[in-house]
Every structure is written in C-alpha cells, then in structure tokens.
C-alpha cells in the first residue's frame, strides 16, 4: 500500500508540475520552436515574449489593475466578513440562523446569473466601469465563503474566553479585536489566501462590469483571441506565466499558514 500511495502521489505531482513547467518553457521559446516541437529549447531564451506581452499587449496595465483590485477587495472583505461571522457565531438572536443560512446559500449562486441585473444596477448608481464598483461586486460575491469559514473558527472558540475578558472590563470591540481576532488567525489566513486566488483569476464579472480597464484574466483572454491567428504563441504563453506567477508565489510564501490553519481546524 505504501508503494502504491507513493506512486499515486508522484503521478499527481507530475500532473501538476509538468503542465506548469511546459507553459513556462514555452514562454521563452521562439514561435518556430513552439510549433516545431513542444520539447524544443530556444537558445538564447526568447525573453522578449514577456516584454511584448507586458507592453505591446498591455498586460502590464492589466497586471497592476488586477493587483489593485485584489488588494482593495481583501482589505474591505476581511474586516466585514470577520465582524459578520463573529456576530453570527457568538451573539445568538432571533433570525441569526436564518441569516447564516442565507449567507451560506450565496456560495451556491453562480455570479453569471446576477450579471445582468448587477450591471444595470451599477449603471443606475454610476459605478459601472469603475474600480469602486468592481471592488464592491467582488466583496459581495466573496462574503459568503468568508463568513462561512470564519463562522466555524469563531464558533470553535470557547465562550469562557469572552466571559473572562468581559469580567476584566473588555467591551464588545476590545473582545473582538484583542481576543477573538488573534485566536481566529488561522481562519483569516485561509480566507485571505483562497479569496486572493479566486479574485486574481476572476473573469466573468470583470468582463461584464469593466469596459475600458481590463483585469489580467480578461487581458489574457483578449491576447489569446488576437494572437492565436497571428501565430504569436510565445506572447500567449508569456501572458499565461504572468497570471500564474503571483498565485504560485502567494502559495509558496503562505503554504505554512494554510497547513497550520488546516491543522488547527482538525484539532478543534
């Protein structure tokens, strides 16, 4: 069984690593080498593909815009989601269960189903094709997952901690910020990482709500549409690498946080 498990793990790792490596090596090949053989090597590497994708195809502006949207959404989302999850888990009131159920059901609702009314609403209030409008839309669609995850972490914290802090003179805000939030850090890291990855790769809402400014997935989609007929595959692969590198970097930097969060959840 150990040998079989090891073989399966190696096969799974190869199924993940090989496609990523193929995309990266293809991004530094000339077009002729890409079409000649997927395993051909260009010497010297065609680093100009990245310059072409970044400047000529305007992926640089899309990269910066995606980064700005993701960061702003996380900055707004985490405090709102944390407060909402904490209130629903620790302050029981009439209808709290129904509110949590409605919020959780939001994860089952595809964003495309609300795309048209959302766009019309944004137009009516003057937030269409704006950074603020896109950030608010992302916050709304990411709130369900955030509250669902953090609700579980806050619910697992003993009520005695809050009672002890209250006896010591802590108010509601002090209890939340100084006691509960530090203890819920594993859950906060989980929602931060997964929301950041989801927001970075989000395509549908960005395509519908933004007409002038493009996010990176939309810019890459437009690049593929334009260059696949021109045969500039090097620029396409370079654009794909620009999308992948931030996500891979985020995971490599924060993978220990994810493992700690999963371990903490298992122990609780």
Structural class of the secondary elements? mainly alpha
Give the overall average pLDDT: 85
C-alpha-based Rg, rounded? 23 Å
Tally of individual domains: 1
State the end-to-end CA separation: 30 Å
What percent strand?
Answer: under 5%
Helix content: over 70%
CATH topology: MetI-like fold
Report on this structure.
It contains 13 helices and no strands. With 268 residues, it is an all-alpha fold. It has one domain: MetI-like fold. The two termini are 30 Å apart.
Question: What are the defining features of this structure?
Answer:
globular; single chain; MetI-like fold; 80% helix; 268 residues; 0% strand; mainly alpha
Layout of SSEs?
Elements (H helix, E strand, L loop, with lengths): L1 H26 L3 H6 L11 H9 L2 H32 L5 H10 L9 H11 L5 H26 L2 H9 L4 H12 L1 H17 L2 H6 L6 H15 L2 H35 L1
Helix pairs in contact: 1-13, 3-13, 4-7, 4-10, 4-12, 5-7, 7-10, 8-9, 10-13, 12-13
In brief, what are we looking at here?
The protein is mainly alpha-helical and 268 residues long.
